[in-house]
Amino acid sequence: xxxxxxxxxxxxxxxxxxxxxxxVRGGAEAFYAHPIEPQETIEPGVQVLVVDxxxxxxxxxxxxxxxxxx
Length: 70
Prior knowledge:
The chain is mostly beta strands. The chain has no helices and five strands. The protein has strands spanning 5-10, 18-24, 27-35, 47-54, 58-63.
């Protein structure tokens, strides 16, 4: 799960339990989501990277930042 990319479907932010959709076993599943940076807000539609996983359905995420080509 860690290192997987997902898309925010429910706003993530301080004091909120957000939601992300993540590709799992050939489909997509919803997970509860919290920002890894406690004061960050991430709006629906933004791609995120899973940096921690708390089974069974909670992930901690940060905004997806693609690597820049040289």
